[in-house]
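STRUCTURE:
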């Protein structure tokens, strides 16, 4: 029997209610004495998360990078990564060597290490990472804390991963394909922004800007006004797909792993000293809006979400 499919966020909300309320942050926060221990986990599957073009080294890199991006969003320093890998029957020694080299290389590049885990056989390649980090209690950054009048900012450029997926699907040569296959978590920027003490709320942009803003808005009980002309679109994206399609990718494609955050107006210069950033809008009382040439339109909360259920 075919029924309704549910969005990932709806399922998470139901699970949180069953468990008695789970804080909606990029990481769980545990009191560890003088600091907080932050912990996150992400499960990746070959069919839904690894494009066919991806080599096993890149699969390993991504599995670590997506977890470290959550650590970055909390302003934390990584302390290690656990990996559970379900290996398919067709995995040979070359595949296994390259997969675990990618895992190790990504961890080492960001000054941490794979510290343990588990392996078994699975019908579909499945890699689950669990990243741990530490952050000073007075520096931890969360999704809640934004207030009307704060400035809305992002690191890096947006839409690049979506453009890379489009280029691969349409057999177009583009540097954006690397952006898709080898994401770069903004750990250095996250730590520097935390130390600036100018940020009021932050999360990573892995599921697309529109959905990320929806999450931030819900957690902080605010809204956002985005200035379309201020959005830092990935280099070459407009030329490849056109302005309208590029904007769709910026807002909804996901996979960029940039940091989206709010800054007190008086703290903007301190935030700018911490890292390269772009002010893309401001915090308002409610709603998520896009402004273009003085005209505003409401933004739909859409982006990358797993769909669950729908078939019995």
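SEQUENCE:
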């Amino acid at each position: 029997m075919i029924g309704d499919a549910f969005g990932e966020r709806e399922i998470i909300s139901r699970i949180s209610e069953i468990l008695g309320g789970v804080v909606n942050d990029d990481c769980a926060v545990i009191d560890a004495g003088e600091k907080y221990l932050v912990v996150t986990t992400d499960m990746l599957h070959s069919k839904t998360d690894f494009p066919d073009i991806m080599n096993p080294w890149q699969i390993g890199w991504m599995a670590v990078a997506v977890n470290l991006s959550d650590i970055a969003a909390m302003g934390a320093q990584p302390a290690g990564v656990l990996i559970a890998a379900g290996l398919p029957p067709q995995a040979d020694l070359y595949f296994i060597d390259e997969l675990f080299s990618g895992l190790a290389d990504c961890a080492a590049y960001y000054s941490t290490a794979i510290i343990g885990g588990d392996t078994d056989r699975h019908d579909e390649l499945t890699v689950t990472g669990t990243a741990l980090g530490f952050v000073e209690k007075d520096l931890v950054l969360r999704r809640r804390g934004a207030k009307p009048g704060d400035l809305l900012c992002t690191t890096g450029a947006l839409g690049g991963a979506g453009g890379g997926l489009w280029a691969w699907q349409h057999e177009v040569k583009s540097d954006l394909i690397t952006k898709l296959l080898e994401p770069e978590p903004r750990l250095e920027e996250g730590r520097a922004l935390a130390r600036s003490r100018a940020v009021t709320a932050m999360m990573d942009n892995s599921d697309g800007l529109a959905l990320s803003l929806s999450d931030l808005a819900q957690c902080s009980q605010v809204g956002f006004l985005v200035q379309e002309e201020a959005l830092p679109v990935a280099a070459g994206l407009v030329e490849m797909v056109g302005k309208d399609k590029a904007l769709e990718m910026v807002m909804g494609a996901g996979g960029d792993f940039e940091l989206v955050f709010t800054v007190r107006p008086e703290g903007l210069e301190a935030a700018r000293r911490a890292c390269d950033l772009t002010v893309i809008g401001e915090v308002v009382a409610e709603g998520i809006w896009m402004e273009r040439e003085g005209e505003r339109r409401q933004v739909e909360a859409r982006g990358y979400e797993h769909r669950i259920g729908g078939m019995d």
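REMARK: The longest strand covers residues 35-45.
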